[in-house]
Specification:
The protein is of the alpha/beta class and about 250 residues long. About 35% of the residues lie in helices and about 15% in strands. Helix 2 (about 65-80) packs across helix 3. It is globular, with a radius of gyration of 17 Å.
Amino acid sequence: MNSTWFRRFTTVAGNGPRLVCFPHAGGSATAYTQLARALPADFDVLAVQYPGRQDRYLEEPFTALEALVGAVAGELAGGLAADPGRPYALFGHSMGALVAFETARLLAGRGLPAPQRLFLSGRDAPGARSGAHYRDYDDDAVLAEVRGLGGTDRATLENPEILEMVLPALRADYRALGGYEWRPGEPLATPVTVLVGDGDPVVTVEEAARWREHTSGAFDLRVFSGGHFYLNDHLDAVAAAVTGGLLAGTGVS
């Protein structure tokens, strides 16, 4: 897999199922470091590194979600061709859930092998109002929301030098979310596991459950205590849900 787009945080690439993880808005591949290490050693866990952050800081970030999805899907298609037959799944949190879902749709539209399962976390299902409330966000609104969600260290957001580095990616990601328009189509056949915190200020459990409408396959809803970044407090349980969900589709136990 292309090292420009994908990162591994384990010492070796396992020869078992592959899990590709998509970060939240403003996030980077390192958001999945701990999850990668909590999963079985034979899993090959890859985290997507979007342009405009960390070691890709000098690259222009995408400001349109459709373009980002197209780029990621193209990279994944090459990986699927190079490693045919290996089961894989996609995991996305927040904005990453939307990118993962649309990537799966694009791969399906191209007739490529489907993921064994989608893991969609901290995001409501797409619909008519998908990105509307982000369209008027300025920098102050973006930073206020990020502070409220609690996924970024407050000292980072209050340090002018660091803020100058992270704001372009945040700005671009929220612009991409604001420009996203849901295009209805046939539900995916891929099984879906949805994960959500019961106190998430961005998405309610009921809204998260509406992902059921976007698959004709099996559907599983996992609710955890906590807010938008509930994952930080339930790492082992999330890893267990991912492990069980992915292995259920591979015939491996």
